[in-house]
TrEMBL record:
One of its GO terms (molecular function) is zinc ion binding. SUPFAM superfamilies: UROD/MetE-like (SSF51726). It comes from Agitococcus lubricus. Zn(2+) binds at residues 646, 648, 670, 731. It is an enzyme of class 2 (transferase). GO terms for biological process: methionine biosynthetic process; methylation. This is 5-methyltetrahydropteroyltriglutamate--homocysteine methyltransferase. Catalyzes the transfer of a methyl group from 5-methyltetrahydrofolate to homocysteine resulting in methionine formation. Keywords: Amino-acid biosynthesis, Metal-binding, Methionine biosynthesis, Methyltransferase, Repeat, Transferase, Zinc.
């Protein structure tokens, strides 16, 4: 019997990796120093796994930027534009693919980035060319294996499997059938497996998360083809799946010629029972019981109901594990000083989860051990106390949700009528220009907030500092000639945490950072109880902003679905219920903003698509309540109030109907990195409301030219009525620096003016 974790967060408990990366990119530290930070983190994380009593340390989960990108480098999937012949390093090459720029090597447009399944982690999309060749270059991984072995650890290596790698990749050019490349890719995997085995590694975890998706028959069939070639006797290969049940793919996964299968028990209900029945009797079953997607403490006692029967059937062939990689949870709960003890005892971060996994193994082998008994008792007591605490209950909110009617979610008139009324009121030109909300979060802003939070800056001084920032940001936008302005979100640490902090029902960590992409992290707030809004959250800032300008300034809110997706949510009530509670809180804010004279209100829903369950079976129900939650949040104001929404890093093809059903007056979406490809869904569906397709990839430090943006807009206008087009960047500008932003927006306004002259 073995206990293991599928992967550990790499960012560091103090965000060491983030800080080192940003220092390296800005020339403050050398590549050697960056490498040392990486090495230290890996070693710490392995030591934690060994100390917790896991049977292996997991190697291969570390990445300076992204683990999918690492695989592209292992396999030589380097788009042509990055293949320049100046002296550079593999590390800088990976940063150029990810960000378009690195300390050495030429700039080039970055690769696309998108969400990792239904998480808030984003990976760099492998770019497959026509006739893509693969060649192995995995020296970094091999070096990490040796590094761990050198420290005396027993190593399990983790790799992303060939089918999932291809599935996550994007075929550019004419070659649309990615599967056609499988026969070229598999030999590279065979060679890599053999190099890994050559180092004396006994166990290999091959992640094939796509087995938890609805797969076309060709993809299903490809599994057998590939794994038939990949099988080998000298490696214990465990196929890892996560995030959803395997359903019809369980049969395929069980029969592949590998040593074992890992399933995500947290996300797959009773499927472990079927897995027990279907798995050939030489195979290992790894049960992912400790939740890698949420921060609630594991209840050993509850897991025994699964573990005991499984152990009876499988004996030594039963393994226990985290449900998925721990990448999606913060590192260490011990660092938290300010959580109330009532809540803190109910939580576990990655380090604590390692102990929980080890405890599951012990619970089977030595059920009477004091540690097992104590863990089990403490968890139940902790949850009982939290449940009994009245502090987190709000009957008024529960009642308000229960009494909702369809009417509450409906605007008074249909879009066409609203559009006329809004046109009269707003008097905007053809192709109105705007931005998505945030402007650069400068070190000064962050320092001021840090000082305020530490009590070194008074509230009034903090407010004055932020107002100064807002005022300046508005002045710059006027100068740039933008039509609809934003206040810039200077006062917000994050678009979700900021609202969480002002809502009842939430608690916060101080160090609970989770990687979102590259060096960027989020600190998801924790939903413990019923959600309510004790007082207006943004009205004073919005009013202040509107007073600074004659032009319209958008009110800026985060929508209920995104609030839910980017928080750690309670699990004692349904996600639908939580979303509706959040929706009511935001609805009240929308109404208050309108009363305060804010004419345009944006309700961001960048996680709207992310929240979609991976399996089609559950999708219709999700759309029903997700759309309802959004419409509820927007439905409390009169027709003249223009409601915007914003989405990014999403596929729209499979959800355009739901997006249309949200009935926002204007939607701004991310489209620049994919050269407007995402717009086709809107065109084909004849999406009826107004759209702002992003023309500026805010993700890269590169400044787009007016000509490039003009071209994108012309492309957009081929499928969408010009009268309904807006002009804006892909997403908020908080991660960018002012000089780039000013240049890029100048170009954006110029592109717009040129097109207005042509089209008016
Ligand atoms: N929750 C969330 N998910 C999202 C997005 C998003 O905006 N929010 N955007 C999309 C892309 N993902 C992103 C995720 C994070 C960031 C981002 O910029 N994060 C910041 C942290 C934001 C934050 O919480 N800032 C705090 C804390 C800042 C900080 O580090 N302060 C210093 C002290 C200040 C100093 O001396 O610099 C410290 O604590 O050490 C604040 O501003 O108050 C970062 O990693 O740098 C951007 C995009 C998708 N998912
Ligand atoms: C990830 S979507 C971001 C939307 C938000 N209003 C911003 O501009 O930062
Ligand atoms: Zn966005």
């Amino acid at each position: 019997m073995r206990a293991h974790c599928l992967g550990f967060p790499r960012i560091g408990a103090q965000r060491e990796l983030k800080k080192a990366l940003e220092a390296y990119w800005s020339g403050q530290i050398s590549q050697q120093e960056l490498e040392r930070v990486g090495q230290t983190l890996r070693q710490q994380h392995w030591q934690l796994q060994a100390d917790a009593g896991l049977d292996w340390v997991t190697v291969g989960d570390f990445a300076f930027y992204d683990h999918v990108l690492n695989h592209s480098l292992y396999f030589g999937v380097i788009p042509q534009r990055f293949q320049t012949n100046e002296t550079t390093t593999d590390l800088d090459l990976s940063f150029r693919l990810a960000r378009g720029r690195a300390p050495t090597g030429q700039d080039a447009p970055a690769c696309e980035m998108t969400k990792w399944f239904d998480t808030n982690y984003h990976y760099i999309v492998p770019e497959l060319a026509d006739d893509q060749d693969f060649h192995l270059s995995a020296h970094r991984l091999l070096a990490e294996i040796k590094e761990a072995q050198g420290l005396g650890h027993t190593v399990k290596v983790v790799l992303l499997g060939p089918l999932s790698y291809l599935w996550l990749a994007k075929a550019y050019g004419n070659q649309q059938d990615k599967l056609a490349l499988l026969d070229r890719l598999v030999p590279v995997y065979i060679e890599l497996f053999s190099q890994i085995a050559g180092l004396g590694v006994a166990c290999l975890q091959v992640d094939e998360p796509i087995l938890a998706l609805d797969l076309a028959p060709a993809w299903q069939a490809a599994f057998e083809r590939a794994y038939h070639k990949l099988q080998r006797r000298d490696l214990c290969i465990v196929l890892a799946t996560y995030f959803a049940p395997l359903n019809e793919n369980l049969y395929i996964a069980s029969r592949l010629p590998v040593s074992g299968l890992h399933i995500d028990v947290v996300r797959s209900g009773q499927e472990w029972l079927q897995a027990l029945d279907q798995l050939p009797d030489y195979k290992v079953l790894s049960l992912g019981l400790v939740d890698g997607r949420n921060i609630w403490r594991h209840d050993v006692h509850a897991s025994l109901d699964i573990l005991k029967p499984a152990y009876e059937r499988l004996g030594e062939r039963l393994w226990v594990a985290s449900s998925c990689s721990l990448l999606h949870v913060p590192v260490d709960l011990e660092a938290e000083q300010q959580l109330s003890s009532e809540v803190k005892v109910c939580l576990a971060f990655a380090k604590q989860k390692l102990a929980e996994i080890a405890c599951l193994k012990q619970a089977l082998l030595q059920p009477d051990a004091v540690t097992v008994q104590r863990a089990s008792q403490e968890a139940r007591q902790a949850y009982q106390q939290l449940e009994q605490s009245t502090r987190w209950r709000n009957l008024a909110v529960q009642q308000r949700v229960a009494q909702l009617t369809a009417q509450d979610a409906q605007r008074a008139s249909a879009f066409e009528q609203r559009a006329l009324i809004q046109h009269q009121r707003l008097q905007l030109p053809l192709l109105p220009t705007t931005t998505i909300g945030s402007f650069p979060q400068t070190p000064e802003i962050r320092r001021a907030r840090a000082a305020y939070k530490q009590g070194l800056l008074s509230e009034s001084d903090y407010v004055i500092a932020m107002q100064q920032e807002i005022k300046q940001t508005l002045a710059i936008q006027e100068e740039l000639g933008l039509d609809v302005l934003v206040h810039g979100e200077a006062e917000r640490n994050d678009m979700v945490e900021y609202f969480g902090e002002q809502l009842q029902g939430y608690v916060f960590s101080q160090q609970g950072w989770v990687q979102s992409y590259g060096s960027r992290c989020v600190k998801p707030p924790i939903i413990v109880g019923d959600i309510s809004r004790p007082q207006p959250m943004t009205v004073a800032w919005a009013q202040y902003a509107q007073q600074q300008s004659q032009r319209w300034v958008k009110g800026m809110l985060t929508g209920p679905v995104t609030m839910l997706c980017w928080s750690f949510a309670r699990t004692d009530i349904s996600r639908e219920q939580i979303a509706l509670q959040l929706a009511l809180a935001i609805r009240d804010e929308v109404v208050d903003l309108a009363k305060a004279g804010i004419q345009i209100i944006q309700i961001d829903e960048p996680a709207f698509r992310e929240g979609l369950p991976l399996r089609q079976q559950q999708q219709a129900d999700y759309w029903r309540w997700a759309v309802l939650a959004f419409k509820l949040s927007a439905g409390g104001v009169s027709d003249d109030i223009q409601i915007h929404t914003h989405m990014c890093y999403s596929e729209f093809n499979d959800c355009i109907e739901a997006i249309a059903a949200m009935d926002a007056d204007v939607i701004t979406i991310e489209t620049a990195r994919s050269a407007m490809e995402l717009l086709t869904a809107f065109e084909q569906f004849a999406y009826p409301n107004a759209i702002g397709p992003g023309v500026y990839d805010i993700h890269s430090p590169q400044v787009p030219t007016a000509a490039a943006m003009k071209k994108l807009l012309q492309k957009a206008a081929q499928g969408i009525d010009k009268q309904r087009l807006w002009v804006n960047p892909d997403c908020g500008l908080k991660t960018r620096a002012w000089p780039e932003v000013k240049q890029a927006l100048t170009q954006m306004v110029q592109a717009t003016q040129e097109l207005r002259a042509l089209w008016q």
